[in-house]
Amino acid sequence: MTLKQIAIRNLLRRKGKAALILCGLALGIGTVISVITYADAVTGDIKHKLEKYGANILVVPRTESLSLNYGGINMGGISFEMQELYEADLARVHQIKNARNIAAMGPVVLGAVKVNDRPVMLAGVDFEEARILKPWWQVNGRPPAADGLLAGAEAARVLELQAGARINIQGHPMTIQGVLKPTGSQDDQLLFASLPAAQRVLDKPGRVSMVEVAALCTACPIEDMVRQISEALPGAKVMAIQQVVQGRMETLMQFKKFSFGVSVIVILIGSLVVLVTMTGSVRERKEEIGVFRAIGFRKQHVMRIILIEATLISMCAGLIGYVAGMGATKLAFYFFSGNPSMALPWNLPLAAAAMGLALAVGLAASIYPALAAAHMDPNDALRAL
Amino acid sequence: MSTIIGQSLSKLYGHGDATVMAIEDMDFQITSGEFVGIMGESGAGKSTLLAIMGAMNAPTQGSLTVEGIDVYGLDSERRADFRREFLGFIFQSFHLIPYLNLEENVMLPLATIRAPRRRKQAMAREALAAVGLGDKGHRLPGEISGGEKERTAIARAIVNQPPVILADEPTGNLDSKTSGEIMRLLQELNGKGSTIVMVTHSRECACYADRIMHVADGRLAEAA
């Protein structure tokens, strides 16, 4: 007979109490695992989705001029020759340290042209990349092919253009293949062509006026990426659109903070369940503990029995909690995320952390009952002597 | 050599006006190998006296020496060690652990000592055999009679061969036939050298003792 055997026999005898503690703790651990796993998975998913919210880094040529445009109001009168970047140089951006965090990179060439004797800005873009960089675009008609054009809503109205209309731009016959629905941005004022077509029309072969980059890097500040792109393109000015980036990060952080807050509360409730049940159990075992003390068990021996019980229950609760938490996460994917195919990230460190947390909570909540048991006066406990 | 010496032992319970003097200025001496009965009316202080002898209830005043050890000069943990090594307890209500079988109950005092499991088992089986329960070690306390429970409690008290056995009304819950058997068992243990101190109300049981200490109103009234 050893202290461990006494603890195991007691647990087997008081299955109801042991099950209550086990359930309380497993529920707490399961909830924490579920919340953390769900938060991680959803954060990854949100990150992925946020990447589709458009560009958050702008690359423009270096210039000493100041813009006289604010909020879409152009104070006009001053025009300047803007330098361009070279398309061939952009390949270097794909070699930066955080290149994997670049979701899309869209070079744009800009230039003024005349359509029906009215001046209008022609933008050459990569329509494939534009799907990621400008996910809010909705096209009446179809996305343009090689020599097709996409007209902004306002440009189409002013120039009286419709899908299918054929126009001539600086000697280049082109077809309007689609009209953008109003976006509320400067895109409404422009005509869009594919980058090679626009470079040909504007006579700017291999040159670009600006580059839009969609990037999200949760493990590094966006400033790092700006610096890396600046180093890759020394002749360019690289700017982070801070509000967009900060907004994205805040969304992720708030979600995580909320998740951890919920976890802490659930763990506190779980530890209270352990504390109350263990204290009740110790009171019920007053006579038994009195016998142990009377026949020569030290206080530490009594404490050890209680803590061995807590350890065994906590380990089971950690294991059950982890598996149950992962199961709950899978259900949450199915019912709440709208994306049941989201990958369940089974991972060993999290399982180990669940065991560790269960042990820490179980033992911490059992210290008071264990001390109470150890300090029980054998004479009072027995009343027989 | 004297085994147990009590000097000027007093025990007060409560405070102020609610103070109760359970034991007052007791002096006694119990020699090694003696079988002593403690008798007295309910509330006379005999259970308090036994608890003091059992190193479980510190006296308000006075000292208790067992085998030359000042029991209440020891700290709480050393007193627990002292109980394990020097004392065997037999309780009126048996106080067997219901979820352990008889053999495991008897092994309890050995649970905290370092010894091979087989040796502990052998000691428990030997103790059970000594009280006539050699073939019932696998049973649970709920599956045996009152007399067998008392025998198991005695086996637990003697398993580590302590020099002193303290018994609190060991036959209080038993019929007269079983009481006789238990008393003969205690007498047999005494015959093998154990010092036995037994609290009892029963004159029949008291007859087995070498000497009776009468307690009345917290004082030792007489010794016979």
Note down, in words, how this protein is organized.
The complex is a heterodimer of chains A (385) and B (224). Chain A is of the alpha+beta class and 385 residues long. Chain A folds into two domains: 3-48 and 250-382, no CATH class; 56-240, no CATH class. Helices cover 52% and strands 18% of the residues of chain A. Chain A contains eleven helices and 14 strands. In chain A, the strands form three sheets. In chain A, strands 1, 5, 6, 7, 8, 9, 10, 11, 13 and 14 form a ten-stranded mixed beta sheet that branches. Chain A has a two-stranded antiparallel sheet with strand order 2-3. In chain A, β2 (69-70) and β3 form a beta hairpin. Chain A is rod-shaped. The model of chain A has no long low-confidence stretch (mean pLDDT 82). Chain B is an alpha/beta fold and 224 residues long. Chain B has a single domain, classed as P-loop containing nucleotide triphosphate hydrolases (Rossmann fold). Chain B has seven helices and ten strands. Chain B has helices spanning 46-53, 76-86, 102-107, 117-130, 146-158, 176-191, 203-206, and strands spanning 2-13, 20-31, 35-40, 61-66, 69-70, 87-90, 164-168, 195-199, 211-216, 219-223. In chain B, the strands form two sheets. A six-stranded mixed beta sheet of chain B has the order 6-7-8-3-9-10, sandwiched between helices. In chain B, β9 (211-216) and β10 form a beta hairpin. The longest helix of chain B is centred in the C-terminal third of the chain and has 16 residues, at 176-191. Classes of the chains: A alpha+beta (385), B alpha/beta (224). The interface between A and B is medium-sized, with 29 and 37 residues.
